[in-house]
């Protein structure tokens, strides 16, 4: 398990900056890093979220049936054993996608008590105002007012959410603009490199704002900054 100090350090950044940094320091293709825009931050005032994924399948929209909770209790016990902030990743499996509602404030409180700090789902959530009192992060496709019988399904299966296949143990990061997965090989170096990326972006922004500098000259200057901050090699 990564040191908690890394999680705390990463909380100083946002998902776009970390995604940019990963692109320079890790060979993972960009398409394997970020979730699509359908997975929206429902709690932007909460700030960044970073933790270890645990996955679950859940049907909260199909008509009829009765509630099934055994696997949820099993997953709560799993979360308690992780020893790091956990992110609950829920694949909605019901027959009416627009009616999926996998999380309310009561469930958020139960998850938080077990060691979970947030949820990422391709379903919906409700009672979002109540999450601030926990506090609890939520990234979901939509808000929805209600649900049918809650049928908690398989745990720890790969879950395709927002175009990414998430597995239990993956490191996820979310902020107001969306969710990324952090490749494990670059996790330890990421806080220090993200600090350099922030400094680079601040300087590059100043270059881009100069009205009297030609476009190609701007490109050359920004590339020189990339070299200076260790994100590129000098041009031959």
Short description:
The protein is of the alpha/beta class and about 240 residues long. The chain has six helices and twelve strands.
What features would you describe in this structure?
- The protein is α/β, with parallel strands linked by helices.
- It folds into two domains: 183 residues, Ribonuclease E inhibitor RraA/RraA-like (Glucose Oxidase, domain 1, 3-Layer(bba) Sandwich); 39 residues.
- 31% of the residues lie in helices and 23% in strands.
- Strands 1, 2, 3, 4, 6, 8, 11 and 12 form an eight-stranded mixed β-sheet that branches. It has a two-stranded parallel ribbon with strand order 5-7. A two-stranded antiparallel ribbon has the order 9-10.
- Helix 5 packs antiparallel against helix 6.
- The model has no long low-confidence stretch (mean pLDDT 97).
Describe the SSE topology.
Blueprint: H1 4-10, H2 15-25, E1 40-41, E2 49-59, H3 70-82, E3 86-92, H4 105-114, E4 116-121, E5 124-125, E6 137-140, E7 142-143, E8 151-155, E9 159-161, E10 164-166, E11 171-175, E12 178-182, H5 190-208, H6 215-228
Parallel strand pairs: 2-3, 3-4, 4-6, 5-7
Antiparallel strand pairs: 1-6, 2-8, 2-11, 9-10, 11-12
Helix pairs in contact: 2-5, 5-6
């Amino acid at each position: 398990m990564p040191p908690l100090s890394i999680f705390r350090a990463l909380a100083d950044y946002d998902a776009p900056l970390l995604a940019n940094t990963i692109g320079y320091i890790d060979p993972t293709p960009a398409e394997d890093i970020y979730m699509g825009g359908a997975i929206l931050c429902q709690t932007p005032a909460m700030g960044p979220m970073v933790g270890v994924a645990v996955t679950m399948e859940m049907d909260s929209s199909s008509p009829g049936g009765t509630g099934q909770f055994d696997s949820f209790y099993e997953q709560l016990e799993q979360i308690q054993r992780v020893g790091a902030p956990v992110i609950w990743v829920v694949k909605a499996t019901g027959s009416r996608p627009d009616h999926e509602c996998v999380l309310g404030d009561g469930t958020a409180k139960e998850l938080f008590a077990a060691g979970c700090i947030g949820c990422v789902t391709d379903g919906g959530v409700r009672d979002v105002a109540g999450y601030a009192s926990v506090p609890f992060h939520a990234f979901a496709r939509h808000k929805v007012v209600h649900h049918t019988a809650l049928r908690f399904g398989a745990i720890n299966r790969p879950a395709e959410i927002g175009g990414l296949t998430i597995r239990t143990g993956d490191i996820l990061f979310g902020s107001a603009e969306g969710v990324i997965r952090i490749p494990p090989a670059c996790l330890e170096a990421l806080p220090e490199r993200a600090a350099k990326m922030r400094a680079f972006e601040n300087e590059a922004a100043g270059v881009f704002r100069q009205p009297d500098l030609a476009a190609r000259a701007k490109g050359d200057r920004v590339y020189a900054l990339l070299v200076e901050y260790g994100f590129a090699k000098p041009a031959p």
